[in-house]
Amino acid sequence: MATRSLKHPQAVTAAPGADEARHVYSAAAGEIERILGHLGEASADEEVAQAKHSAIESLRPTQDRLQHELSALEADTDWKTFTIAFYGETNAGKSTLIESLRIALGEPTKMASQTRFRELQDQEGLTPEKIDAAAQAVTEAGAVRAQREAERSALQHVDAASADSERAAVAELEAVIARNRAQASVWTKIIFLFRPMPELRQLADLQKRHAAEATSRAEARARAGRAVDEAQRDEERAKNALARRQAALAELAAYADGGIIGNGQSDFTLEATSYAFSASGQPFALIDVPGIEGKEARVMEAILSSVRKAHAVFYVTDKPAPPQKGQPGNPGTLEKIKGHLAAHTEVWTVYNKRATNPAALADALLNDDEKLSLDGLDTTMRSELGDAYQRTVGVSAKPAFYGVATCLVPGSPDERGQAKFLARIDRAGLLQRSNLAGFRHLLEGDLVRGHERKIRRSNFNKALKVVEEAQAALEGIQKKLVPMEKKLHERTEDARLQIRSATNKLRTRLDTQVQGSVDEFATRVREAIYARIKSDIDNDTFKQALEAAFAAEQAWLEEQLPARFEAELTRLQKQIADVVSRLEEQTQELAALFAVVDVGGSGRGFELKLDLDSGLKVGALVSTLVGAALLWWNPAGWVIVALGAFTAVISLYKAVRGFFSSDYRKGQQRKAADENIDRVVEQMRSSLGDNLKDGLPALEQKVDEIDEALGRPVAELRSLNASLRRSLKALEELSGSIKAQGEK
C-alpha cells in the first residue's frame, strides 16, 4: 500500500479522480502507521519501553481494523460516478423503489429486460387474451371429451339392455319349442319330420335379426370409442398448448418488471447490485443493499462494501418511527445505522408507506400522526449523524411500481394487484399519489446537483472518519492513563513516605539495640567478676578473671548483637514488603479499573493492557536489604578494640594493704572492675555508634533503589502520556489536512 504523506494541505491538491485524491486512503493509512509507530518508539529505559509496547499491543487490533478499513475504502470507492445506496431493514421496500426508478428513468438493463419480455410475449403468444383462450380451449375440450364419454357410456348401457332382451326372447321361444315337442303325438312328431314346426322358423328369423342388430351395435360402440379418443386427443392438445404457454410464462417472468423485488421472505436480497442511470447527462448509480436485519453475517461484507462505495445514502424504512435501540451485546437498528453511516456526508430517510388498497391513497400520502412520528425520526437520526443527516421523504413504493410497470406476467399477483389499483387510479395519478414523481425530482435535481464536489467531500470524509477513530482510540487511552497516572503517583508517594518513615524509625531502634546490648554486656561482665571477687581471690587471679569475663561476654555480644540487628532489619524488610505489596495491589486495581477503553462511544472499545512494574523488581531489592546491611553491621572486632582500654593494675600500696585486709582488697578489686568496665563500655559505645553510622549508607542506598523502583510505573505512565499527546497532535494535524482537502 502506498503511504503518501497528508501532513500538509498541499499534499493532495488535484481534482477528484486524480491520483493524489485516489490515494487519500493509502496516504492516511501510511500516516496512521507512522504516527502510531512513534507512539511505540524505542526508549532507553527498558521498563518504559515495555510499558509502551504493551499499550501498543492493546491498540494493535484497532489499528489493524482501521488499516483494513482504509484499504477496503481505496478498493471500493468510486471517484467518477455519484453513487447512492438504498440501505435499511429487510423487506422495507428498497428493491421495490429501485425497480420503480429503473422503469421510470429507463435504466439500460431494465430496458433490455422489457424488450426481451415483449419479444418473448409476442413469440409465444403470451398475451392475456391468448392465455385466456388457451385455458378456455382446455375447458371446452374437456367438456366435449366428457360428453363423448357420456354418449359412449349411454350406448353401452343400451347395448347391454338390448342384448339381455334378445337373450330373453330367444330363451322364451326355445322354451315354447321344447314344450310343443314334449306334448306332440306320435303322428304330429312324424309330421314335424316333413314340416318343421313354425316356432323353429321364428327362432331362426329371430337369431338372424339379433345377429344383425349386434353387428350394428358393435359398429355404434366403435364409433363412440373413436369419438372419445378424438375428444381426448383434442383435450390433450389443448392442455399441451396451455402448458407450453405456462412454461413460456416462467421464462417470461425472468424478464418481467419486479424481478428484483422480494417475495416477503427474509434475506431475499443477498448481494448488493448497482444500477447505472443518467440525469441531464450526469451519470449516477443506485445500489440495492441487502437488509441490515436477518442473517446479517451472510451479507455483512456486501453491506459494508456498498456503504463504502456510496456518496449518499437513503435509509429506507416502512415504520414511521425512530429506529429501535438495541441492548448491550445486541445492537439495534439505530446502533447499526450509526456504525455503518457515521462516515457519510449525506444521509436521507425514505419512509415507504405500505398501501395494499387504492383507498389508502385517496387522501394525502402522509397523515398527521405519521408526520409527527417522522419528525421524531428526523430528530433521532440527526442526533446520531449530525449535519450529514438531511430529512425524511415519503413514498409508497408498491403503488409507484404499479404506476410504471408495463411488463407483468399475465395472471401473476403483480398483474392482479396492478389491475386493482388501475381500476381506481390511472398511472399518472399513481405516480403523483405515491410521490414517485417527487422522489424522482429530488433524485435528478438536488441530490445529483454538484456531484463532483459531493464525491470528493464524501470520499475524503470517509478517510477523515477513520483518522478520527484513531484519534478517539488514543483519546480513550489518554482519558484512562492521565487519571491513572495521578492516582498512582499519589499512592506511590504515600508508599515512599511510609518506607522513609519506617527507615528512620529503624535508626532509632538500632541505636536502642546498641545501647541496650552494651548495657547488658556491662551488667553481665560486672556480675561475673563480682562473683569471683566475692570468692576472695588475689589480684593476679582477679586480673585473669576480669579478662576472662570480658572475653566471655564479648563472645556473647558478638553473637547477640547481629541477631538483634537482623531482627530489626527483618522487621523493616517486612514493613517495606507490605507497603510494596499494597502498592502492587493498588497498581493492578488501577490497571483493571482503567482497562476498558471506549472509542468515542462507538461501541468499538478494547482492553488496555499495561505491563507496568508490578513489584517484582522492588521485591527483589527488598529481599537483599537485610544481607546488604549485615555486611556492614557485624560487631566482631568492635569489642576487641574497646578492650584495649582495659587495665587491671592496682597500685603497690593498695596491693600490699589488700594483702593484709581481705575486705579492703575486695573493695579495691570491685573499684578496679567498675573503672575498667566503664572505660570499656564508653569506648564500645563510641565504636559501635561509629560503625553503625558507617553501615547506614549501605541500607539507605538499598532504600533509595527501592524508592526509585517504586516510582517506575508512574514514570512509565508519564512517558506514555507524553507520547500519546504527541501522537494525538500529529493525528489532529492529519485530520485537519484531510478535512481541508475534502472541502476543495
TrEMBL record:
Protein name (database record): G domain-containing protein
Residue ranges that the Swiss-Prot or TrEMBL entry lists as coiled coil: 221-251
**UniProt key word Membrane:** yes
TM segments? 638-656
Instruction: State the organism of origin.
Output: Lysobacter korlensis
The record's keywords, sorted A to Z, are: Coiled coil, Membrane, Transmembrane, Transmembrane helix
InterPro entries recorded = P-loop_NTPase
